[in-house]
Specification:
The protein is an all-alpha fold. Helices cover 65% and strands 1% of the residues.
Length: 485
Amino acid sequence: MVNYKQDLKILAIIEVVIALLMAIPTTMAIVLGERDALGGFLYAYGAIVVFVALAFLLSARCQSPTLQRRDGYLIVTLTWVIATMFSAIPLVASGYFTTFASAYFEIMSGFTTTGATALTEIESLPRSLLFWRSQTNWIGGMGIVVLFVALLPALGSSGSLLVDAETVGPTKDKLTPKIKNTALILWSIYLGFSVLQTALLRLGGLDLYDAVTVTFSTMSAAGFSVRNGSIGSYQSPYIDWVVTLFMLISAANFALYYKALTGRISAVLKDGELRAYLGIWSAVTLLVSAALFGSRLFSSIGEALRYGAFQCASIMTTTGFSTTDYQTWPSFAQLLLFLLFFVGGSAGSAGGGIKVIRIAALYKMGRAQIKSRIHPRGVFQVRVGQTTLSKDLLVSIGTFFGIYILTGLIGSAVISLSGADLATSLSASFLCLGNIGIGFGKVGPTGNFAFFAAPLHYFCSFLMLVGRLELFTVYVLFTKHFWRR
């Protein structure tokens, strides 16, 4: 049974956390004299105060029992929906977004670390609004609920339910017995890498504002930029390589960094998903770079490798940055980039998509099936690195993959009803579902989602949410079994 009053109280507390985080761009708006933006933030604060007051009034007599699994799914899904709603108010109330649908799409894209935008002219917005837009990337990278559990007093088993519902994936690493400590460790590693990247970007000549916003969108594997030309605006090989490195860092399993810090280096080196992750990126990067150099688009191997490595990392990690218009590249290179849409980052990372461990497991399952045809009485285990995957887990992975592809295809069909061409419809659907941010056609590196009507902005927001929470956390709410007592 769902405990609505307790769920409402937790949602209200999470909104308080969001409001506190919004204080940073609000202060920027005051200091920079951005009156329109400041007005937008104040409207948002007013709406949050009303919501929190009503929520606490309605849940005043709640005795705070332990949450059930259904509460976890409901709270996590509504957290992302409601946080996006209030966080979008500054964009539309300031007058820089003409519809609430486009503002909602923009912030959902931020929180889900998709990085797709409905803006045609980014640099014309106030710096405080752009900072908030990028900050939503960073908050969403490690998870809103994980941040809530890390900052507030421990919820015991209830905290575990919430984190499990948000940090979904085929495998999970519990770093410490207490979920609060695990959340703190993950956010500490995330913060540490963010500080390091910011420092390296400053050494490359970026001012503090650009360095921080680029870091927000890199470490979250998100892709929002405060420049119209994304990372390509900086025209710096050094910046490109730093961002490439940290995109790869952000989409690796953060539990591995904890193992490395605690001296378990051999466990990190033997990790099967990490090897597959780096192997896929390296192989595709070499093929794409060879195609670029062979087509004479770039004058040297080094330059072709720079652009190839960056774009392969950007799409595979689901970050969505760009340094050039890859739609002018050879068809072979574009095809490889499109195939990376269906890989994604590692489990336990900031990256989205299907996840490398699922791709590796599907490949191993295929090999096992072929062997079983030759040796029908044989028993073949599916292993990724040192880990043997159980039959239940393999069924779960196969089910996820099937529903993921089906969702993307249905999404493509819905988007095509707007009159969008095939490349735009397919890539728009899968880039939202995989939280990738850039695709092909009108939503390529030089395009955006501004031409979509309000209903499609909401529909794409739904796809981003479903993809970020990996299907089942959201889909379970649409079953009659969930609502039964």
